[in-house]
Design goal:
By secondary structure, this protein is α/β, with parallel strands linked by helices. It folds into 2 domains: 239 residues, Type I PLP-dependent aspartate aminotransferase-like (Major domain) (Aspartate Aminotransferase, domain 2), CATH 3.40.640; 102 residues, Aspartate Aminotransferase, domain 1 (Alpha-Beta Complex), CATH 3.90.1150. Helices cover 34% and strands 16% of the residues. The chain contains 9 helices and 14 strands. Strands 2-10-9-8-5-3-4 form a 7-stranded mixed β-sheet. The longest helix has 22 residues. It starts with 6 loop residues before the first strand and ends with a helix. The relative contact order is 0.17.
Length: 363
């Protein structure tokens, strides 16, 4: 299998579009006739400043980001934003509302409590073992809350909201790490969107924050400057050295998104891939998906087999067949297929074919 491109079902860092990687490969040792890699040029040189500006412009175009939002390229991953968000838009003692639908929600809630906030969990899906999202209208946001936070897609459990929570004017904050660029969204529904890049946007190390202007300038004293939204916006995300390769590769991936039809076409492809895999699992007597039908993720598909003792065998044989990183998260077991934007329909079909054969031999 040496030298062969596999179908990589990793939840992140994840499979990236070969078209973008090929361009990066061709430019790796000599970017823009500089005689240097993009990894080596100064982030304050005119070529990289222009690259970062183009990447931001493309992201605004693809997502439809209004002029009343700032786009920040930060470090620390989405996990860093669990603390940075309270530091930037709350004071100690403020009430904040959260929806708990899985392990990433739990981590965000823990960080908010550590920041001295009055944290209210309006919906806690732990009782269902995180196999569903709360029903629309089943919770009420406090009008005095500083924000409502939710995770549109829980990567580990494969639970996804089918709707945007209504907040009655309270700023809506969302961790879009696993779904950003997978379909159109209405950015104006949100006060703040944040997303780690390592799913649909590029390599790990870059976190994109999209924050509405009215939420800027509120940072608490002592907020680290690299996480101070107003300071970073003023410096065009270059208060310190940004994750330059991540910004560059995000630009290449955004060009690929545009060239392949934009987010509407991306959504059609992603929906078709998810429906094919879920359809196969549901029709099988050997495999099952534990997530409620109305809460299934397009991006992360966990599944269990009838004989759990064969999980390691399944993963090993799949890997040998060029289908990698299918082991479920260590906290939940089973298998998980992450089928982000770069996963082609052929990869999903190859997985279905393998699962069919495995069931035939072991069912």
């Amino acid at each position: 299998m040496s030298g062969m491109r596999v179908y990589n079902f990793s939840a992140g860092p994840a499979m990236l579009p070969l078209e973008a990687l090929t361009v990066a490969q061709s430019e790796l040792t000599d970017w823009k006739s500089s005689g240097m890699s993009v990894l080596e040029v100064s982030h304050r040189g005119k070529d990289f400043v222009a690259c970062a500006a183009e990447t931001e412009s493309l992201l605004r175009e693809v997502l439809g980001i209004g002029e009343n939002y700032k786009v920040l390229f930060l470090q620390g991953g989405a996990t860093g934003q669990f603390d940075a968000i309270p530091m930037n838009i709350t004071a100690v003692g403020d009430r904040v509302d959260y929806l708990n639908t899985g392990q990433w929600s739990v981590k965000a809630i823990k960080a908010a409590k550590a920041q001295g906030l009055d944290v209210h969990v309006l919906a806690d899906q732990a009782g269902s073992n995180y196999t569903d999202a709360p029903a629309p209208g089943s919770f009420t946001v406090d009008p005095g809350a500083a924000y409502l936070h939710y995770t549109p897609n829980e990567t580990i459990g494969g639970v996804e909201f089918s709707y945007v929570p209504q907040t009655g004017g309270v700023p809506l904050v969302a961790d879009f790490s696993s779904t950003i660029l997978s379909r159109p969204i209405n950015v104006s529904d949100y006060g703040l969107i944040y997303a780690g890049a390592q799913k649909n946007m590029g390599p790990s190390g870059l976190c994109v924050v999209i924050v509405r202007d009215d939420l800027l300038g509120r940072a608490r004293p002592g907020t680290p400057s690299v996480w101070n939204y107003a300071a970073m916006a003023e410096a065009d995300s270059m208060l310190n050295t940004p994750p330059t390769f991540g910004v560059y590769l995000l630009g290449l991936i955004l060009k690929w998104v545009v060239q392949t039809g934009g987010l509407t076409a991306m959504a059609q492809r992603n929906r078709a891939k998810a429906e094919a895999l879920y359809g196969f699992i549901d029709a099988s007597d050997y495999y099952r998906n534990p997530v409620a039908l109305d809460s299934r993720s397009w991006m992360n598909v966990p599944f269990l087999q009838a004989n759990g003792e064969l999980d390691k065998t399944f993963v090993a044989e799949a890997t040998a067949a060029g289908l990698t990183n299918l082991a479920g998260h260590r906290s939940v077991g089973g298998m998980r297929a992450s089928i982000y934007n770069a996963m082609p329909a052929e990869g999903v079909q190859a997985l279905i074919d393998f699962m069919t054969d495995f069931e035939r031999r072991n069912g």
